[in-house]
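User: Second chain of the day. Same drill as before.
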Amino acid sequence: MAEPRTTPQQATPSAAAVPTDQPPNGRLARRRGLTLHETVLIAVLGVVFGFVYWAFVQLWAPLQLAMGPLADLAANVLAGAWIVVGPLATYIVRKPGVGILAETLAALVEVVFLTSPAGPLLLVVGLVQGVGAELPFALTRYRRFGWWVFVASGVSAALVTFAFNAVRFGWLGQDYAMLRLGVQVVSCVVLCGLAARLLGDALARTGALDAFAIGAARRG
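Assistant: Same format as last time:
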């Protein structure tokens, strides 16, 4: 009688054999990183709003003349107009750091291509503005985009940039420092926070942003 022929059992991979250097959720990891078309969008927004910001700089001197004795507050009146790309980019892409990156890129365009009189220091200003505008979205973990978050973005941007400029220009020692702060908060809420939401919604309605997070949210 012949001996029974047996085949060796194939070993099943154990948990220890699975490579541990792979992310537990690859899809989530990809979601958090910027895609190519998101990177291109942020670059386009940075360039476009770099020119938009430069245009508002040209309004600065005429506004000073129009404001008469309160001419020194003209920069605070326009403050929100120089921060709008931060919350706008965050609204569209909905990933960490997007608003900071877009705002800094806009400042870079002003420095390199438009020869801003502020010089390289404007890059630091753009970074500060981006941090201030993006902070409320970060606190919601980029999951809430109601009107109140955009209002909070404007207030946060106003407070952070005011604190930075108060040290830079010595505003705290002035008699109307609180008036200056109030004007800047209103400007940032209207021209930064609410304007970003309105611009984002207007662009989304055209279908141009369907490939981004804002488009997916609109589709439900």
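The CA atoms of residues 14 and 20 lie 12 Å apart.

User: Great, on to the next one.
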